[in-house]
Amino acid sequence: MIRKFSILDIDRIMQLWLDANLDVHYFINKSYWLNHYEMVKQMILDADIYVYEINYKVLGFIGIVDNYIAGIFVDKTYRCQNVGHQLINYIKKDHKYLILSVYQKNQKAVNFYIKEKFKIIKEQIDLDTNEVELVMEYNHKRIESK
Q: One matching Pfam family, short form (predicted)?
């Protein structure tokens, strides 16, 4: 089930955020994520967050600000089990245009977004990490016109 975030979810959300970042962004120093923990926790309160849960356990979430997907995070044991796909589709119902940034080295995520009909529109350097990011967009009108 997908539902809107509740403040009661914050600890679980932050654990998913930290665990996923440490796991998939192995190329970025652990201290980067630890140093940004409190800032991200505050930002989550200002974003639209939707959680995916089974039996009252949050297994993943998606964060969106306007049309920008700030991130999708899924419990490691539930990755590749359609959780991310369901979260993206949930957001697509209300957003015909979406944009996001993903590290180029996170190839599994890049492939996931391509499968979800996102297109790479540019490359840039994340000045905080010095890593290449891909900016990707989903445009329902572009897809419909094909």
A: Acetyltransf_7
Name the nearest CA neighbour of 61 among 102, 24, 17, 22. Answer: 17
Extended beta strands in 2-130, E state: 2-4, 48-54, 57-65, 68-74, 97-103, 119-126
For tokens 């974003």, the residue is 47
> Residue 47's domain spans which residues?
2-144
**37-66 confidence digits (pLDDT tens):** 999 999 998 889 999 999 999 999 999 999
CATH of the domain at 52: 3.40.630.30
Instruction: Identify the CA nearest to 83 among candidates 59, 108, 106, 63.
Output: 59
Enter the pTM of the model: 0.91
Domain count, the chain: 1
